[in-house]
Amino acid sequence: MATAKKTSKKKEVSAGQGQDMVPADLDMSQYAGAGLENTDRESFAIPFLAIAQKMSPQVDKDTDQYVEGLEVGDLFLTATNEIFKDEDGVDVVFCGFRRVFLRWAPRDEGGRFKGELAPNAVTAMRANGEVQEVDGKLFADDGDLIRDTRIHYVMVIRPDGSYTPAVVSLASTQIKKSKMLLTQLKTYVAKGPKGNFTPPTFAHVFHVETVAEQNDQGSWRGWKFTRKGWTPSKEMIHDCDSFSKQIAADNVKVDHAAESGGSSSSSDDNGSGDGF
Question: What is the residue range of 250's domain?
């Protein structure tokens, strides 16, 4: 017969961005940041908020990346394997943006990630004939896929109110959604004490869902972003502002290989739209 585990009667308080609870009589603030003194940008890799697709290794029980309980259409964080079910979605706050071109080896060579290229570098490569467009996709001379990718840095808000930074990566058929989202954020006008103004992107909470999509090349789950309201607390606004400044200072490392298990077969690889 199992013995019931005794629970502590100590009063507990939320740990802010984490899910654990910290005893109220233990003041950890005096040790804030301890143990991270020698870290730098290369020491961390921000997780992706990703969509589980039919070909995702995380839904395949025969792979070492399998995540129990994850189903096609669910959202999940790659670093922690936290799952946000398809029927529930998850709320996010947008804190920053970057456009890059990602270079991937051909699929028959493993489809591994081979680095980032700036948009102006790809423009020069096109002018020099080093890349060619085939069926709406860009390929280098050696067969590498050059994918136009829109990186959105977000705070993911868990159901319990805690939150954590992550990245949403949009490419191929999802680029138009990135453009629509940025247009909505840029053109939103609010009234302030001194008149109308454009709020910071992190002033808004968006609800994220996945939707079924298809074209003549296949079917997949795509992204859907719906504005829900204003960011709920000054603390979250402050943390999002700090995150935004880290992004602007290029102090946030993104491990693109981790998004899809190191392969270019990402969530939206069925459609065209990798060009300009």
Answer: 41-258
